[in-house]
């Protein structure tokens, strides 16, 4: 059987081809699954999608009409999939429920340190042989307070790093993580965490209840010199409200690996095209903001696990087995 994989990155392609070798043929496309590209999948029973694919009801209907019966998403998040329509159409949809939490947690810390110690500005100056220290002063993290919003596997890994820095830990989640409690984490309400934390890192999934969990009011409640990091999903932060606070001169730094309108931008080369997203264009101009292109997960270990789980999900579908990775049928 030949499988069609959308949104495959250049570094990811040889890993996918090797993982499926001897099992199934796989056709890798660098274009993302959308309403425009969905017709390409006609005749393919199994389609693999990436995190920024559009799996709205319209796209799912095009896939189903073309003969697709199984969608294997190569990510943990699935807020881009209309599961109600998928179930109505009888589509099997799977995801990757787990991969290396260290990839994202370590990258979140990379962003935190980059904005705290002004690394991007310093590197850019060095290229011009400007080695002044003016404007590059950061702060010790030791002794400060880290607020971890979402204390699952990734949040726990982030908290362990913060603990290693000698930081006080505040947590916010529906369920308390015993491992985080052992580190000395104190679980508090969101309002208290935002008001007291010097560093806030987001590790919650994007759901209806968490959309814009960091809104204008939440941003105003944070310390003026706080650091905010988001390596989860862009929709957790109200981007326009964030721009307004940054324009007012607030926050020591903001590190964003995700953006709420990243679909159609991230993973693509837009350097020769006119900038049409005014909010993102404004964000990247602030000297205390670092924006990266949804790369926190992009390590050899994490991508390898994602692909291997996808291979297993395909094998389970063909064998009629069900695992915790199956989202549809319910």
UniProtKB/TrEMBL annotation:
Positions in coiled-coil regions: none
Keyword Magnesium: no
Annotated D-isomer specific 2-hydroxyacid dehydrogenase NAD-binding domain residues: 110-296
Entry keywords, A to Z: NAD, Oxidoreductase
The organism's place on the tree of life at top rank: Bacteria
Residue span(s) of domain D-isomer specific 2-hydroxyacid dehydrogenase catalytic: 8-327
PROSITE patterns documented for this protein: D_2_HYDROXYACID_DH_1, D_2_HYDROXYACID_DH_3
Xref: Pfam families: 2-Hacid_dh (PF00389), 2-Hacid_dh_C (PF02826)
Similarity field: Belongs to the D-isomer specific 2-hydroxyacid dehydrogenase family.
Annotated protein name in UniProt: 2-hydroxyacid dehydrogenase
Organism annotation: Streptomyces bambusae
